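Propose amino acids for all 135 sites.
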């Protein structure tokens, strides 16, 4: 009888320890800097950011500020249809990257979070863009 209790206790403790080691896949209250977009490195001298709050996103596309809503459940990720941005003049190279960025952001269907890297993926699981965590 004591062995059964001890075994049960060990299983419970192991379960608690394993659940405590489960990585946090929550995106809430995180900030990111674009590293790659459409399989290419992001422009080195242009900072593109993605800041995720509770259901709201925002940041800079390298020239303009943007914001809107997003949903995330498990590894699913979707941007709302309410994304808006300022409309400052940007040179053609930055503007082209911004258009590609918004297109990819709207195509995101899921995410993968590994350490300090966030990948947004399309419906086929292909990487659309990658971010590194920022403060």
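Proposal:
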């Amino acid at each position: 009888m004591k062995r059964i209790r001890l075994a049960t206790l060990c299983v419970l403790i192991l379960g608690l320890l394993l659940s405590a080691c489960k990585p946090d896949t929550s995106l809430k209250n995180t900030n990111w800097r674009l590293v790659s977009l459409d399989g290419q490195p992001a422009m080195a001298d242009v900072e593109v950011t993605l800041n995720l709050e509770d259901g709201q996103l925002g940041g800079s596309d390298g020239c303009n500020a943007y914001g809107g809503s997003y949903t995330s459940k498990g590894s699913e990720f979707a941007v709302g249809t309410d994304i808006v941005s300022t409309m400052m003049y940007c040179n053609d190279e930055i503007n082209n990257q911004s258009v590609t960025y918004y297109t990819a952001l709207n195509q995101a269907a899921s995410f993968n979070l590994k350490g300090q890297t966030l990948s947004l993926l399309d419906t086929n699981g292909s990487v659309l863009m990658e971010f590194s965590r920022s403060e």
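The beta strands are 30-37, 40-41, 49-52, 56-60, 65-73, 76-79, 84-85, 110-114, 117-121, 127-134. Residues 50 and 124 are 22 Å apart (CA to CA).
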